Amino acid sequence: MSNELESLREQLREAQETLQAIRSGDVDALMVDGIHGERMFTLSGADEAYRVLVEEMSEGALTLTAEGTILYANRRFSQMLKSPLEKVLSTNIYTWFSKEHQSILLELLQKNKEARRHKELALIASDRSVIPVYLSVSNPHINKMPDTICLVITDLTEQKQNEEIIASEKMASELLKASNESKKELLGILEEERKAKVDLAHANRDLSALSEDLVETQKRYETAEKIGKVGSWEYDVSTQDFWGSAEAKRIYGFPAESANFTTEIVEDCIPEKKRVHQALEDLLEKGTEYKLEFEIHPADGTPPKIISSIAETKYDENNKPMKVLGFIQDITQRKQAEKSLKDKKKELETIIEEAPNPIMVHNEDGKVIQVNKVWKELTGYRYSEINTIEKWTTKAYGEEMPTIKKYIDNLYELKHAVNEGEYPITASNGETIIWQFSSAPLGIINGKRTVVSSAMDITELKKKDEMIINQSRQAAMGDMIAMIAHQWRQPLTVIGMVANNIKLDIALEEEITTQELEKIADTISEQTQQLSQTIDDFRNFFKPKQEKAKTTVGNVLEGTLKIIGKSLENNNIAIMIENHSETEFLTYPNQLLQVFLNLLGNAKDILLDKVVADAKITIKIDETQDSIVTTICDNGGGIPEDAIKRLGEPYFTTKEKNGTGLGLYMSVTIVKKHLNGSLTWENKDEGACFIVTLSKE
Amino acid sequence: MDMKELKKLTQKLRVLYVEDEDKIRETTVTFLNHFFDDMVVAADGQEGLESFEKEVFDLVITDLKMPKLSGKELITKIKAHRPETIIIAMSGVSGNEGRENSGGDFFIVKPAHMEDFIGVLKQIVEQSGEF
Question: What predicted TM-score, i.e. pTM, was given to this entire model?
Answer without folding.
Answer: 0.44
